[in-house]
Amino acid sequence: MIKTRRSEGAATAVEGAARPWDARLAAWLVRPLIDSRVTPNHVTTLRLLLGLLGAACFAHGGFGWCNAGAILIVLSNFIDHGDGELARMSGKTSRIGHVYDLASDAVVTVGLFAGLGLGVAVTLPDRGASWWVAPPALGVIAGLAVALIFYVRLLLENRAGKAGSRQASFAGFETEDVLYLLPLITVFDATRGFLVAAAVGAPLFLILVLRDYWRVREAAPAAASDASTGMARAERSMANDDEHIALAGVGAAAFSNPEGGVDAGRADTGGHALGASMAPPMAAAEAAPSAVPSMRASAEVGTVDPDRAVAARVADFDAAAAKARFDEQGAFLFIEDFLPPEVTRGLIDCVRAVQSQANRNYLPGHKQGGSVSRHVIDEAAPFIAELYRSPALIGWLERLTGDRLLPSPDDDPHAYALYFYTRAGDHIGWHYDTSYYDGKRYTLLLGVIDDSSCLLEYRLHTRDEQRANVSGAARLRPGGFILFDGDKLHHRVTRLKEGEERVSLTFEYVTDPTLRGSRRVLSNLKDAVAYFGFRQVFRGMIGRRREPARRPDEPR
Ligand SMILES: O=C(O)CCC(=O)C(=O)O
Ligand SMILES: [Fe+2]
């Protein structure tokens, strides 16, 4: 149960009288297992199986089955305390275990109520067609509401600490303990009344919990205390950037590979990633004015026209050479220093404006980090949207790719997004930026903040049988530019180390914005689970009329 696993991190705070009675009893029972081969995940699995068995008994319906189900559910709930207690005492805590525990809670809870509904339906004396639907529907409503209550309380705790999610507790009894009364309900054959009461009561209780959550959100934005350090880092990051520009100015080579080349030698072929980066030949001219770390970013941003700034910048590059390199590298190009410094400073301001709204997620074995979707950006950082639609930028990308590019549709949360690497271990594993659209999907990554040792590692030509794979790595510094065909570039970002920070901006452009039914569902699910959370993704879907993709220079 969530309440117990929560105590893993704050065991001492909850020790003693405030600890629920069943948690203390479970702790006493699992103590002999501390040095055994039994892990907390084994205990969670037992809880899950017993819970599902209990739910199945309820679904079968009938007096005897329901009583058996009640006993199994009580047992399952009690054992659910065991995993957390065992993890706490044996030090075998893990994030996967925590996620598994939460998922089991949700599955058993929804399963229990759905089973209860089904059982009521099959045993009703007069079974008209609607009765087959109504009780199971009540069950699902109650189950989902209870699962959501658990989840919101967890969010509350993440934001406000344990005190924030303090729940009704009397002499060590907590709200969840209602489920221990289940055998009483089945013994008195009161499952129907209980089902109706739960379907009405649980959603009402959910509203109360949500109200608490909104209150806490208003009072203490999650990253408020991080914001100031983030700001300091951002300034430092810009200082590094300026230093870097100044250095590049001295070299002033047409193509240089000072960072991207570091690891490029780790090619699958043993070869080199053929000058994966590009620097403009005129870096020296730009170096002097930009080499002053700016503390005036906010005042400045209002006056920066990203389109004009980019238009001026791209004129510095040899477009034909850049296009040739993009093609030679199988639709991939890294330009170490691309954005005009005033645009980068504008982006850093945007990061500050939205960082408290970053949705953090953790996909075991694949990804850990924070993200902010285009919907939040539209509200709080429109400068990014302006840059995304800059005709000069799109024109430059079209020149490189040779394709006519369109912005992603308005309801695509990934059209432009920020990725936050702010805690040790933040990373993303090997993947493609798969296109769910009918046409191609190009990803443009722009560096915003980089006080990190993270590398964007990539493999070229993995989907081209005619060519040997080539591996490389790029350090995406503030103002850096990486453009690639999402379906072609295999890439990952290495783990952030303690005390580091990295924020990147992604722009997605498509050649055909048609997104068919099931792929839309898949794309939204992926964005919700792996990036922005359901709230950001579905807020965008609900709040927005779907408009056809339009080029910025086209009339509305
Ligand atoms: O942060 C980056 O540089 C790239 C992240 C990435 O590849 C992704 O999230 O798909
Ligand atoms: Fe990616």
UniProtKB/TrEMBL annotation:
Cited InterPro entries: BesD/HalB-like, CDP-OH_P_trans, CDP-OH_PTrfase_TM_dom, CDP_ALCOHOL_P_TRANSF_CS, Oxoglu/Fe-dep_dioxygenase_dom
Pfam families: CDP-OH_P_transf, HalD
Top-rank lineage group of the source organism: Bacteria
Membrane is among the record's keywords: yes
Transmembrane segments: 99-124, 136-156, 194-210
One Gene Ontology term of the molecular function aspect: phosphotransferase activity, for other substituted phosphate groups
Cellular-component GO terms for this entry: membrane
GO biological process: phospholipid biosynthetic process
Entries under PROSITE patterns matching the protein: CDP_ALCOHOL_P_TRANSF (PS00379), FE2OG_OXY (PS51471)
Sequence ranges assigned to domain Fe2OG dioxygenase in this UniProt record: 413-511
The entry's keywords: Membrane, Transferase, Transmembrane, Transmembrane helix
Family: Belongs to the CDP-alcohol phosphatidyltransferase class-I family.
Protein name, per record: Phosphatidylglycerophosphate synthase
